[in-house]
Amino acid sequence: MTEPKRQSQAKMSRSMGGPLAGVAVLPPGLEEAGAAELTSLGAESVQVLRRAVAFRTDLKGFYRLQLQARLPFRILRELARFSCDGPRQLHDAVAGAADWDQWLPPSRSFRVDVSGSLPGLAHSHFTALQVKNALVDGQRQRWGERSSIDRDDPDLCLHLHLGRAPGGRGGMGVLSVDGAGGSLHRRGWRAAVGLAPLKENLASGLIALTGWDGSVPLADPLCGSGTLLIEAACRQLGRAPGLDPAGNQPRPQLLGHWPDFKAALWAQEVKAAQGLAEAPPPLAPIVGLEHNADVLEQARANAVSAGVGDHVQLQQGDCRDFQPPSGPGVIVCNPPYGARLGGEDNLEALYADLGVMLKQRCSGWSLWLLSGNPELTGALRMKSRRRIPISNGGIDCRWLHYEIR
Ligand SMILES: C[S@@+](CC[C@H](N)C(=O)[O-])C[C@H]1O[C@@H](n2cnc3c(N)ncnc32)[C@H](O)[C@@H]1O
User: Fold this and answer.
1) pLDDT in tens, 313-348
2) Within 6 Å (CB) of ligand 1, which residues are found?
3) Which of 189, 206, 223, 377 to mutate to test the pocket of ligand 1 (most atoms within 8 A of CB)?
4) Contact of 70 with 106, CB cutoff 8 Å
5) 80 sits in which H/E element
6) Is the peptide bond before 328 cis (omega within 30 degrees of 0)?
7) Is the pLDDT score of 42 beyond 50?
8) pLDDT of 69-101, one tens digit each?
9) CATH, range 11-178
């Protein structure tokens, strides 16, 4: 190839942002933060969608995202996109979507997840069956045998997204492979669940939005099972979410079954992820208070299993008695808001008391509070500077930012 041609090809692949297209599925409200994270990890052509971010990268980039991205639930690699107007067309499009002899020989098990819907394909279970039938019909013809379905521990996890084609003309399907078999919010450190815990990726995204950088104290006076503080510590200490905190080895993933898997590239990315935690910066105090002794024990167990037990100081106590370390710093919290933990009767008093305590003892600190109930946050008698809409397990919440005076 001539030099100008090579240069123009390189330019084209740069402007396209890498040879492979992907989508990271995110908690609603964290799309912008997710886009920033993926960009910082080298993804290109990053585009914010609803509950997701589209991007381009190469294989190495997929490996890096799988190991280091803290916000996504799933990282999907696109295999094909096709127009789709019903079950018959879906069947044919899936059959021709990839070199299935490479991607899915009959010795490998698989699972199909579905999101979205189209006329004639309104039920995800039925749609998944059409995808499965297309694959196993082809296998029977070519091999005389078929793959088994394994919902819990498949070798290949396929994802089909259905929606309207851009411009609203007809339907469209996007068939992808998931780099992991389960949701990436499960980091492997949660020994115990607490009362209404936040998902790990959501907690990490909320911390990212505060801008806390480890140089000032971080406190959660209603810390529950400790998710916000543990994820904050992991983030600052460079603990890659794709590595098992116990052995610092990669947690189970499926991209090793992809036919173009490159063991040497994967090993490089694993080493890079392990290296992030090698020289951790000094951290300001990270402190948590929880009034329920059993939940506090869970928080302690979680911090230890995440490998940050020495960095997070957890105490039993009532948030009204919270004594901040010398600051100012950042307070994060997710107080009960009635939707999941008991009634709202005494919650208004709790919020009012919390507001009084914060103003008396934490002047100059920044407060970030996850609220699912605006009436309760009104009882704080404080004026928020920012209100970021966030969905917490389907509950419409706000991540509220206050400067405490
Ligand atoms: C919604 S949960 C927090 C969940 C936490 N973010 C997590 O991920 O596990 C609220 C927590 O506040 C605790 N709590 C309620 N009232 C409290 C009080 N007065 N002082 C301290 N903790 C309190 C509850 O026991 C519960 O664990």
Assistant:
1) 999 999 999 999 998 999 999 999 875 444 545 899
2) 194-198, 222, 224-225, 227-228, 289-292, 295, 318-319, 334-336, 341, 350
3) 223
4) no
5) strand 74-83
6) yes
7) yes
8) 999 999 999 999 999 999 999 999 999 999 999
9) 3.30.2130.30
d(Cα 214, Cα 232) in Å, to the nearest integer? 8
Of 11-20, 52-61, 380-389, the range with the lowest mean pLDDT is: 11-20
What are the start and end residues of each CATH 3.30.2130.30 domain in the chain? 11-178
Q: Closest ligand 1 atom, CA of 203?
A: 8
The whole-angstrom separation of Cα 21 and Cα 36 is: 17
CA angle 215, 218, 220 (to 5 degrees): 175
Helix axes 200-210, 31-40, angle to 10 degrees: 80
Distance CA 131, CA 144 (A): 19
Q: Assess contact for 147 and 186: CB atoms under 8 A.
A: no
Report the C-alpha gap between 19 and 23 in whole angstroms: 14
Atom of ligand 1 nearest to the CA of 194: 9
**Identity of the amino acid at 94:** V
Instruction: Please name the fold of domain 200-239+279-403.
Output: Rossmann fold (3.40.50)
Which of 195, 210, 337, 351, when mutated, tests ligand 1's pocket best, judged by the most ligand atoms within 8 Å of its CB? 195
Numbered ranges of CATH 3.40.50.150 in the chain: 200-239+279-403
pTM listed for this prediction: 0.92
Q: Could you give the C-alpha distances from 314 to 115, 271, 288, 297, 301, in angstroms and in order?
A: 40, 32, 5, 9, 11
